[in-house]
Automatic annotation (TrEMBL):
It holds the Pfam family START. Residues 27-221 form the START domain. PANTHER family: PHOSPHATIDYLCHOLINE TRANSFER PROTEIN, START DOMAIN-CONTAINING PROTEIN. InterPro entries: START-like_dom_sf, START_lipid-bd_dom, START_lipid_transfer. GO terms for molecular function: lipid binding. SUPFAM superfamilies: Bet v1-like. GO terms for cellular component: cytoplasm. PROSITE patterns: START. This is START domain-containing protein.
Length: 221
């Protein structure tokens, strides 16, 4: 499917404006530890403009940057044939546009999340994706775009808004042979989910970083 160049330029501008804000947010002192488990640490943050919690998770990966990027770069398709244990909470993930042969591997893709419970509709998001290399960091940045031509809204599925979702890989300052991976996400699920109910489960999205860690370590064997 094609997308007008002027639309891509518009989406790219928004992504580029978001990037420095995201990098500043990564190390904000306002993050509060929400829980800590073996190999992963979770943080939450709130701001006045949204009732929905921001989430950060951090893992250390004993692997090279090349192996971590080998996991992060591809967008894996999820459909009805994907085994349950490889869905990672998704009903669907598919590429709508790209990846372009540019320095950012510009891509537009859709994800549909499983319903978190009875009487709650699944959510989907149309996401603009870019890979940035900046100041020793490899950043995969996703944010929602308003394009129903690429992916019309489906009956029974609520179209949410992803303010940002990102993976940031960099050398671990405590051991440069390892990679520190930070996952950040802030979304508005839209619809009628109470903020309190959403905020109780959103931290689980941070396990995405642990999944990347596991796969990069497997590639390194």
């Amino acid at each position: 499917m094609t997308v007008a160049p002027e639309l891509i330029a518009q989406y790219a501008k928004s992504s580029e404006e978001l990037l420095p804000k995201l990098l500043e947010l990564q190390n904000s002192p306002e993050w509060k530890v929400s829980k800590e488990e073996k190999d992963i640490k979770f943080y939450n943050r709130t701001e006045k403009s949204s009732s929905y919690t921001q989430v950060k998770s951090v893992v250390t990966i004993p692997a090279s940057m090349d192996k971590v990027l080998e996991v992060l770069k591809p967008i894996e398709i999820v459909d009805s044939n994907t085994p349950k244990d490889k869905r990672h909470g998704l009903n669907e993930r598919r590429i709508l546009f790209g990846p372009q042969d540019d320095e950012f591997n510009t891509t537009i893709f859709l994800i549909e999340l499983e319903s978190p419970g009875m009487m709650v509709s699944p959510r989907d998001f149309v996401l603009f994706r870019r890979h940035y290399s900046k100041d020793g960091k490899e950043i995969f940045l996703h944010n929602s775009i308003p394009n129903t031509d690429l992916a019309p809204e489906k009956k029974g599925v609520v179209r949410g808004e992803m303010n940002f979702q990102a993976f940031i890989a960099e050398k671990d300052p405590e051991n440069e042979e390892n990679i520190r991976l930070t996952f950040l996400v802030h979304a508005d699920p839209k619809g009628k989910i109470p903020a309190m109910a959403y905020n109780m489960v959103v931290t689980n999205q941070g396990y995405a970083a642990k999944g990347i860690r596991k796969r990069a370590m497997e590639l390194s064997k």
